[in-house]
Amino acid sequence: MRVKVALFATCLTDTFFPSTARAVVRLLERLGCSVEFPLDQTCCGQMHFNTGYRDHTKPLARKYTDVFKGYDFVVAPSGSCAGMVREIHPTLGESPPRTFELAEFLVDVLGVTDVGAWFPHRVTYHPTCHSLRMLGVGDKPMALLRAVKGLDLVELPDSTQCCGFGGTFAIKNAETSTAMLADKMRCVLDTGAEVLSAGDNSCLMHIGGGLSRLRAGVRPVHLAEILASTEEDPWRATP
Amino acid sequence: MARNPVTWLGSPTFPKAAHKALADTQLRQNLRKATGTIRARRAAAVIEMNDWEQLRVAGEQIKDDVLARLDTLLVQLEESVTARGGVVHWARDAAEANQIVLDLCREENANEVVKVKSMATAEIGLNEALEAGGVHAIETDLAELIVQLGDDRPSHILVPAIHRNRSEIREIFQRRMGVEVSDEPADLAEAARVYLRQKFLTTKVAVSGANFAVADTGSIVVLESEGNGRMCLTLPETLITVMGIEKLVPTWQDLEVFLQLLPRSSTAERMNPYTSVWTGVTPGDGPQKFHLVLIDNGRTATLEDSIGRQALRCIRCSACLNVCPVYERTGGQSYGSVYPGPIGAILTPQLVGDMHDPQAASLPYASSLCGACFEVCPVRIDIPSVLTHLRAEVVEAKGRTAESIAMAAAAWMFREASRYEKAQKAGALARFLARDGRITSLPWPGSKWTSSRDVPAPSAESFRSWWRKNRG
């Protein structure tokens, strides 16, 4: 029986990183899932909640429940947004449908670590804070990456330290955020990797934005895009 | 009501203070080294415990039980201490507590007191208050002494001079003690030992804080590493202990949990070198007069907040400071309070109790919500949740601002997919600001981002329009 999955693309990925959401669709379909994308979805409300706008968050949490109710599994290419739904929405009086971050869904629900991917690049992985500490995703993304053919995985020093994004923290405390980013970038560059991967486009946008400013020559690529890449249909940098 | 001295008068908001601290390369280097070392040591001290998670839960539950029964347990403590010959004083705020201690010093005709390291007395600004009343307080904890002699402020709960390296400490000692000393840690410690020994032997009054107070026996517990505390707690004739009302445990048995949690979390030791316990007054042994000053100073108000009150579980171990990426870069003084780091970001504003105070209101935002603090907290204080809870209070206190208007507009837009899509299409035009797929400069407040980071150009085609075209 085909597993029916609803994709929660997240507003950031939908708008700025559509190639990640397309990769999730391709990957999950390759693994035998049927994927739906309810067009009524918007945002989980994390920015509002984390900045102190709880009242504005409630209708967004309600909307999420309404849009995704009836699906057995909701999958998001973001540990942060999945964490928001799973850990915070219930505190706002919602009973959201079962929502998973991509790596969790692959390993825990589908029970696969080798997804048949091919990605012949030197890659380092930043385990994002909310994947790590809100969801407890652990080393599942690393297990998935280790099974990718051709991929040279190099460990990121001090990997569990925050990159300094933190949503509006990056604006409100821009200088502290930048100091954290500087240390994270140094760790990334120390690995000699050509690709920096993570399960969250928000953190990748942050670290990638810093690396781009430095012309550092390291490309941020979401985990989903690496896992979707195959020899027949390899990953290509999309504008 | 007088201003709560838990924050230092004239402290700038966190981002302004951080601006200065981030530019101090020596500070950055000192902190990176110190926090990196203690982080690794703590991790090693914790991982060898099979029941660490159960201990954390036990710590949380005991403290929650104490907070729920604080009214009766405090009265029980007062009765136990009084029965054993101690005198209990109650202080609503810092001013009352400082006056009580000053009066007690005057009763003893003391113009000098030796002090055991204590967060409670730092919180109420006791040293300054005593000085103003003609009583000089001598800090005897090594790091606390470094801060005092350097006319400095503390930057860490456990190691208040963590922002200083040994060459800076040498300079302070030479200048203030008038001694020649090398920058070898053993020599520096010896210089402090010689300086302090005379004070221990001649000073008649000691002031301490308390790590724990056992309600049913009236016993007070202090944990320390250097032995200076033991000196202060045994040699003087009069001992005055200043303690926050939340520092209680119900029984001796409850101590067992914290005597395991605290050393491993704070100094990364299996057991701390000195644990001093005393119960009232013991004739012929130790101080013959004992006063216990119980301070509220914002705690009862904090207790009223069902989410915020978990900050009162804190046992002042500093584990959250040592793992905090923000603290590691800005240092403790940026928080403008004796309570820095993640715990300070939630405790200080609650003790101040006024979110209209711009400095206090900036503290809950001094975090990327990475959650490293919650992970290590020995009493499981969910600091990220309290931070967002307090941010909501800040937003409410601030009322209508440019930010609140923008947030309301964004929320309105997100409530309907059709509006969101229109905004997405309009926003996609920003790609024309981009060169080579990146935007390097945006107007305020986006400029705060582009000061150090590029922005990817929004895609010409969102995922949803791709889906509609290809799958819809």
From TrEMBL, chain A:
One matching Pfam family: CCG
All copies of domain Cysteine-rich, residue ranges: 5-85, 123-207
Superkingdom field: Bacteria
The protein's name: L-lactate dehydrogenase complex protein LldE
Organism for this UniProt entry: Lentzea atacamensis
Taxonomic classification: Bacteria, Bacillati, Actinomycetota, Actinomycetes, Pseudonocardiales
From TrEMBL, chain B:
Keywords: 4Fe-4S, Electron transport, Iron, Iron-sulfur, Metal-binding, Repeat, Transport
Limits of the Lactate utilization protein B C-terminal domain: 396-469
Keyword field contains Iron: yes
Database matches in Pfam families: Fer4_8, LUD_dom, LutB_C
InterPro entries given in the database record: 4Fe4S_Fe-S-bd, 4Fe4S_Fe_S_CS, FTHF_cligase-like_sf, Helical_ferredxn, LUD_dom, LutB/LldF, LutB_C, NagB/RpiA_transferase-like
Domain LUD: 76-281
Tree of life domain: Bacteria
SUPFAM superfamilies per record: 4Fe-4S ferredoxins, NagB/RpiA/CoA transferase-like
4Fe-4S ferredoxin-type domain span: 311-381
Keyword Magnesium assigned: no
Name listed for the protein in its UniProt record: L-lactate dehydrogenase complex protein LldF
Taxon lineage: Bacteria, Bacillati, Actinomycetota, Actinomycetes, Pseudonocardiales
